[in-house]
Write a structure and sequence with these properties.
Distance between the termini: 14 Å
Helix content: 40-55%
Radius of gyration: 14 Å
CATH topology: Nucleotidyltransferase, domain 5
Strand content: 25-35%
Oligomer: single chain
Number of helices: 4
Structural class: alpha/beta
């Protein structure tokens, strides 16, 4: 069994996958789209990755405000998670993702990546951080 982690953003969706023992999360890819509301290709890629990695559960990052209230992005992520669950038939869990992008950028800064290089990988790193948080909570 594997679990997928998703970091859903305005124009991207970072993807991470757990190992089979559910111990570690590995960044896999960043799905990019040309318009925020054009999600068909994003869903198709998620479905394809679910089949390829034999995913049984999906964790979607939920970007709540620091005061624990919802923002427009929080609402969009909830709707996205519901759509992912319908499209894939997989159990979908929302996971607090506050500070994951900040943490991903810190990791990439420490690795010495340029601004352009970070832009290519930050979303999948954030997805791995989201997924790792979930994996740590269930171990």
């Amino acid at each position: 069994m594997r679990i997928m982690g998703l970091d859903f953003g305005g124009m991207t969706c970072g993807v991470a996958i757990s190992d089979e023992l559910l111990i570690t999360a590995q960044p896999v890819k960043t799905i990019r789209r040309k318009h925020e509301t054009k999600l068909r290709q994003t869903f198709a890629e998620i479905e394809s990755l679910c089949a390829e990695y034999e995913v049984e559960k999906i964790v979607v990052g939920l970007p709540k405000k620091l005061n624990d209230t919802d923002s427009e992005r929080t609402v969009a992520c909830r709707e996205f998670a519901e759509s992912v669950a319908r499209r894939t038939g997989k159990e979908t869990i929302l996971w607090d993702e506050r500070f994951t992008t900040v943490e991903a950028n810190r990791i990439l800064d420490e690795a010495g990546l340029s601004y352009k290089e970070k832009g290519l990988v930050v979303d999948k790193i954030a997805a791995a951080i989201i997924l790792q948080g979930y994996l740590d909570s269930i171990s």
